[in-house]
Amino acid sequence: MARPIKETPILFGDDACRFEERMKEKRKLSPEEKAKLMEAYLVCMAMLERGNQRKHAEEAV
Questions:
Q1: Rounded Cα gap, residues 27 and 13, in angstroms
Q2: pTM attached to this predicted model
Q3: C-alpha dist (Å) from residue 59 to 10, 24, 48, 49, 53
Q4: Domain residues of the chain, as ranges?
Q5: Taking every pair of C-alpha atoms in the chain, what is the biggest distance, in angstroms?
Q6: Would you give the end-to-end CA distance of the chain in angstroms?
């Protein structure tokens, strides 16, 4: 059985202000970083697809 999910902490004061400011910042990635992220994304999508194909093959039998 799964463990219950803990409650999300609430931020107050300076912590809340810092968090909000960081969320507003736009992150700039270099072309190399973007390529690396895309490669990781494609690998994950390929694994998901293989898992789905295996699941469908097992259901067909």
A1: 24
A2: 0.54
A3: 45, 46, 17, 15, 10
A4: 29-61
A5: 59
A6: 29
Residue 12 CB neighbour total at 10 angstroms:
8
Q: Phi, psi at residue 51, to the nearest 5°?
A: -65, -40
Tokens 């960081």 correspond to 22
Task: Provide the b/e sequence for 15-52 (b: ≥16 CB within 10 Å).
Answer: eeeeeeeeeeeeeeeeeeeeeeeeeeeeeeeeeeeeee
Task: Give 2-53 pLDDT, tens digit per residue.
Answer: 888 888 889 999 999 999 999 999 989 999 999 999 999 999 999 999 999 9
The SS3 of residue 25 is: coil
